[in-house]
Amino acid sequence: MTVAPDFRPHRVVVLALDGLLPFELGIPHRIFGRPEDALGRPLYEVVTCSVRPPGPVTTDADFAVHVAHGPEALATADTVVVPASYEPGPVYDQGVLTEELAAALARIRPGTRLAAICTGAYVLAAAGYLDGRPATTHWAEADRFQQLFPQVEVDANVLFIDDGDLLTSAGVAAGIDLCLHIVRRDHGTAVANEVARRTVVPPHRDGGQAQYIHRPLPEPQLATTTAARAWALSRLHEPIRLRDLAGQEAMSVRTFTRRFREEVGVSPGQWLTQQRVERARHLLESTGLSVDQVAREAGFGTAQSMRQHLQTVLGLTPTAYRRTFRPGGQKVSTARASRPASASARALSKSSTG
Questions:
Q1: Could you read off the pLDDT of 330-347 as tens digits, one per residue?
Q2: Is this prediction's pTM over 0.70?
């Protein structure tokens, strides 16, 4: 990756509110604290701030955390992340900001990217940022969130939604999915995958949060499509039919499709397309194969077919994607993603529950 002489890490400011969840507070630091450029320099700088001068912030555990920065840090952010907190107050009870919180948010510069983890979306919604925009939050809060903020387009089925300069995630661990997605959006699949590997988490989780909502499930010993998925991943370059997948588990197509969706949260066809898109991204970033060759290796058959899928999911053609993210190429700034690309990212997130 070519780095400009005036290199400056992207500044992520995490807003710590009273009643915060320590686990979610740590997610941005863990994920954004890992990526480095080719010279070993951190790609992100992460700081935590409060709505008050430096000092203690309560948590939902039996300890507080000392936050070293006040609200003035928000004015320096390229990205602001709002983790969840469980402190009762006007934001959650009435959908309005306290004077203290409103004054803090007013410091954020126009064009700053905003992200919320779990019920942190309440803060963005109460501030009016999510009016007329798609958003998600923890599935257990989705109905109440929609009632409190009817102007927001709430989708309770996805793990996260990327709407360009506004991103929201489902509960708790979905914050990891969201932060990894931001790294992938900013610096490509290879960088995000390395962060995931070092953090010992999957670089991409299939399905949406609907798969975690309580519902009757088949017996564990019967509900497995693992072998079929492993079989498919080893031959993505080949045509794969639904009956071929079902045959790997000695199931009927109908039974296999039902159990696959129960386990993974998406249909077999949607999952297969997701895997092929990820394969194409990897090959475009890490090899010198032509677009036609990448299309064949990823199982799309033709360059036109792959181009349509990548355009839908990423908002980029294969050539533009390679130019943007291939190491050694000219990296395009992503301080604020274009709306067409972000809308496509939202489509990918939503397709995981289709």
A1: 443 333 333 333 333 443
A2: yes
